[in-house]
Task: structure prediction
Amino acid sequence: MTATPPTSPSKIDSSCRLPLFALFGGAAVWLVLSSLFGLAASMTFHKPSMFADCAMFSYGRAYPAWSHLLVYGFAIPSGLGVGLWLLARLGRVELAKPFLIAVGAKLWHLGVLVGLVAISAGQTSGYEWFELPRYAAVILFLAFVLMAIWAFVTYSRRPEKSLYPSQWFVLASLFWFPWILSTAVLLLQFFPVRGVVQVAVAWWFAGNLLNVWLTLSGLAVTFYLLPKLTERPLQSHYLALFVFWTVLIFGSWTGIPMHSPLPAWMSTLSSAATVMMIVPALAIVTIVIKTCCGANKPCGGGPLCYSKFGAWCLVLATFVAAIAACPAVARVTDFTWFTHGHTTLRLYGFFAMTMFGAIYYILPRISGVAICPRRIKGHFWLAMLGALLLALPMIGAGIKQGLKLADANVPFLDTAKAAMMGFRMGTLGELLIAIGSLIFLANILLSIVTYYRAMAKTAYADAIAIQLTGVKP
Amino acid sequence: MKSSSIVFLAAFIALSASWGGFVLAPQLQLGRADQTKTVPAEEKYPLARPGLAQQGAEVYRSLGCVYCHSQQVGQNGVKVEVVLLDAGTNADNTISALAKVNAQLGKPENFIGLPKKLTEVADIGAADSIVKAVTESGGKIEVNVIPTGADISRGWGKRRTVAQDFIYDSVVQPGTRRAGPDLANVGSRLADANWQLRHLYAPQAEIKGSTMPAYRFLFEKRKVGKVTSADALKLTGEFAPPAGFEIVPTDDARALVAYLLSLHAEAPLFESPVTPPPAPAASTNTTIVAVRAEIKNYTASELLSVEGTAK
Result:
């Protein structure tokens, strides 16, 4: 391949505009919808019969709709969008076939919509974190592959040959998702395996999605934005490489809880891998501290705040999960809200926050429209408080519930009610997140609309000029 | 890392290793599991769920019951009880044989008021010497394996749930959360179909203060015709429909209840022994007939005879 001269950043940014508008815009809409379903689901715990006449919002359908929209609607498209931009920027090359990537993005959102309708109508697949039925899953697979192909083409055309850590993370995530998704679709939905092997496949998929895919995609951003925003070099590339390897090696074996009808060796191995995830977490701590320390940059509620907060949440969630993987603790925390708590911390606290930061960093560059810093700051505080209020009380409630469950003398109803305080705080957290998501949606839509309005104005002015002078300006 | 091929190689090796471990290996170990026999009764286990219950499993999946209910009983360990049934014709002989195994066991007062629990041991193997001593001297002895743990004490099951319990299910939903109680054996625990229907319609009517949401959309509220329908729910107090109306379960509600009543996972298996075996649950088919009979206010035997003639 002949080396092309490096392209200017603004040209690269404008090549990303169309697909990134599609990915981010859709992600923001799904995020708002997801938090509405989350609110509906949590209301069930305040008034159990609230949706007794409305199947769509009953807990067993609102909850999967929440997680489906959060993971497939928001997390994956935003992670993909940011990843595409990173590949183009770090490779100093324009995005290949932006139009086709935008088509892929629209197709992806269509798949998410089909999945949502199916879940609300009771067509859920029945596997946690993989609720969409097979026809929706196939659409998502095709859309992802369409986008990933052009991401790889972009990558192979890059004139900048040296690799930055973020690129490894994005590339691995592009490779990871089609593999795990195709395994889940084929072995769970087209040619279902027998008995509990289904459970093994579903948990393997969920573990890889939540603990590997999200981590890879989120860390790509963290390792790019932290040095950029603090104007210091990443400390260091070797540690980042170490994080990369350990997340791949240990993360891919997580996901199987201690209590399961599967053979004991599987949960033992998975618990060990979950504990070993402390190793990359410690390396991340070192990277964040050494990169940010000494940089006299107040984060002021901007992208740097989001990135730092996200990284700390990832570390916290990893530690909490590792503690809960120890058999003595798992005896109490399995089957309780504890797991939900640390998964939420990972999803909202780490991944969503990191993505918000990245999108607020990228969007003004590709649209040329500045986002009001006060709205970014407002969203930060709402989202941060919301994530903490949603996750931490659930962790506490889970322990309380688990201790009561383990004591057979406590009536079951008391164990169920032990989590009530957690739910009250959680609903408040969900409400803050919902308001925050609305601000996020407004920020994104305003940027997109302002951009197209400016385009239209220029086009209109040009047309008038041609009409008046007869000469094309 | 200079070369991108190393990135792909790393990802490929890591992912294929975990794929081999958590997808391929369980498939090789359990993917061909088939019906087995219970121990020691040698009955076939598990039996496929009857049609209505299978439809109910789909309703269970569609309503997302799994987000609040697990279907796996855990156990912490087992308690092995050695029960002396009969000392044999020559009791002295048995006493001295037992005394040789353990001086505590050989006490004559152990032989008064048989059958009597002699001792508890750590596992079945530890009971072997006692069993041998008693049987060789002509006595009769029984070793009972009783699983222990909070779930078992709650009455959620007699033993832990194992892979064998799920081989005929697809989608398998063991669940990971207990916002509601475990349902692995709900068919044995709460076997009254009418109770289940009323509980689905208004959980708080049956269990005061229950946190379970009501599933009124699974029922039809309709005007009473000339006579009250036979399958109308018998509700009282605040949950009763207004005068002139009745609450009738839809097909989904009936199927769901048939599925719930088909949930039994307590047959004693080689990998999860329980003795003495629990009283044999009515075969699932009879249960379903019983469900339909109760809903329609027939007796099961009447319905069976009707269905028999239909065939």
In short: Chain A touches chain B through 84 residues (CB under 8 Å). The mean pLDDT of chain A is 93.
